[in-house]
C-alpha cells in the first residue's frame, strides 16, 4: 500500500501533468493553479483532509456569478447535476455558480487528472451560455474582463 502524497509532492505531480497537457500554469500560493478554458476559468486546488490522512485535487470552474436564482434556474441546476458523469454544480450564497469535481490525490495518475480537468472545464464552458439565458449574470470570461485573477480565485 502506497503512502499518501504530501501536498508538496502532489503539487509536483500536478505541475508535471499540466506540462504534459501543454498547460504552462505557475502555482499561486497554497497550491492553487488557475487558467482560462474557453469562456470559463479553471482553478485546481490541492488540500488534505482534516486528519491529513489523504490529499485531494479539486477542479473548479466558475460558470456564472451575479445571477438571479429563480425556481426555473434551480430546477435546471438539479437536472444538470443528474446528467453529469461526475462532479456537481454548486450554488453559493453570493450568487456564484461553479462546477466542481474532487479526486483523491494519493495515487492520482495522468489519465484520471487529464480526464477530470477536461471534463470540469468542458461542462462549465458548455453550460454557461445556457444558464446565463435562464438566470442572467456573468460568465467567467465576463469577469476576467472586469476583475483580476485574484478576484476570480476568490469566487471559486
Helix and strand element order: HEEEHEEHHH
Which structural class best describes the helix and strand composition? Answer: alpha+beta
CA gyration radius, whole angstroms: 16 Å
Number of helices in the DSSP assignment: 5
Word description of this protein:
There is one protein chain. The chain is of the alpha+beta class. Helix content is 43%, strand content 26%. It contains five helices and five strands. It has helices at residues 7-20, 71-83, 110-135, 140-146, 149-155; strands at residues 32-37, 40-48, 55-65, 88-92, 96-104. It has a five-stranded antiparallel sheet, with helices on both faces. A hairpin with a 3-residue loop joins strand 4 (88-92) and strand 5. The radius of gyration is 16 Å and the shape is globular. The model is unreliable at 147-156 (pLDDT under 50).
Provide a brief overview of the structure.
By secondary structure, the chain is of the alpha+beta class. Helices cover 43% and strands 26% of the residues. The longest helix has 26 residues, at 110-135.
Properties at a glance:
alpha+beta, 156 residues, 5-stranded antiparallel beta sheet, disordered C terminus
Write the layout of secondary structure elements.
Elements: H1 7-20, E1 32-37, E2 40-48, E3 55-65, H2 71-83, E4 88-92, E5 96-104, H3 110-135, H4 140-146, H5 149-155
Antiparallel strand pairs: 1-2, 2-3, 3-5, 4-5
Amino acid at each position: 500500500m502506497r503512502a499518501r502524497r504530501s501536498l508538496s509532492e502532489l503539487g509536483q505531480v500536478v505541475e508535471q501533468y499540466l506540462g504534459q497537457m501543454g498547460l504552462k500554469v505557475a502555482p499561486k500560493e497554497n497550491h492553487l493553479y488557475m487558467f482560462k478554458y474557453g469562456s470559463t476559468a479553471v482553478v485546481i486546488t490541492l488540500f488534505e483532509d482534516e486528519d491529513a490522512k489523504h490529499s485531494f485535487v479539486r477542479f473548479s470552474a466558475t460558470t456564472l456569478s451575479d445571477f438571479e436564482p429563480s425556481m426555473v434556474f434551480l430546477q435546471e441546476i438539479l437536472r444538470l447535476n443528474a446528467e453529469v458523469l461526475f462532479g456537481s454544480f454548486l450554488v453559493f450564497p453570493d450568487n456564484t455558480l461553479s462546477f466542481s469535481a474532487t479526486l483523491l490525490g494519493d495515487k492520482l495518475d495522468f489519465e484520471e487528472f487529464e480526464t477530470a480537468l477536461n471534463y470540469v472545464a468542458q461542462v462549465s464552458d458548455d453550460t454557461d451560455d445556457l444558464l446565463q439565458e435562464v438566470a442572467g449574470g456573468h460568465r467567467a470570461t465576463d469577469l476576467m474582463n472586469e476583475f483580476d485573477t485574484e478576484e476570480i480565485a476568490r469566487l471559486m
